[in-house]
Design a protein that fits this description.
With 150 residues, the chain is an alpha+beta fold. The chain has one domain: Mannose-Binding Protein A, Chain A, CATH 3.10.100. The chain is 21% helix and 30% strand. Strands 1, 2, 3, 4, 5, 6, 7 and 8 form an eight-stranded mixed beta sheet that branches. The longest helix is centred in the middle third of the chain and has 10 residues. The model has no long low-confidence stretch (mean pLDDT 93).
């Protein structure tokens, strides 16, 4: 199982993180007002919080609840939305291989839908969007979880 290392909390705003990832498209609601980049560097004296991201695949459509339960059985935890923001900067090629959804605490969107950040591509263009947390995740999606620090 491949892991991807990211470090959260370098003081950049959400807008700066999105710009650094150089997406071809970003959902207009992925902004500091809705997804503030929290100051993890204050919590961890060595300049940020190191995280190990693990991508899980399922052979069928799956709910967020069932995917989270399966991840927990493997000792994995739900990600933060910041994991998605830093992951998109550090590993831009991964979303070109297929969609990656981050099952963080969902954001209540403008139309009452609970949303999670998803990284995907459209005709080779990298995109950052929001998808329904309560919908089923298609089998071709990889769902991002975090290996807890030991």
């Amino acid at each position: 199982m491949r892991t991807y290392s990211v470090t959260l909390g370098d003081g950049r705003s959400t807008e700066e993180l999105v710009a650094a990832a150089r997406y071809g498209y970003c959902h207009s609601q992925v902004i500091s007002e809705n997804f503030p980049n929290r100051p993890f560097e204050r919590l961890h004296a060595k300049g940020g919080m190191k995280r190990e991201i693990v991508l899980l695949s399922f052979d069928r459509p799956i709910s967020s609840e069932d995917a989270t339960a399966a991840a927990a059985q493997q000792g994995l935890e739900r990600p933060y939305y910041e994991d998605a923001l830093y992951f998109g900067i550090e590993y831009p090629e991964v979303q070109l291989e297929g969609p990656v959804a981050f099952l963080h605490d969902p954001w209540l969107g403008n139309h009452g839908r609970r949303d999670a950040i998803c990284l995907w591509n459209n005709a080779g263009r990298r995109e950052l969007g929001l998808e329904g947390f309560d919908d089923l995740w298609p089998a071709d999606y990889r769902l991002a979880f975090v290996r807890p620090a030991s």
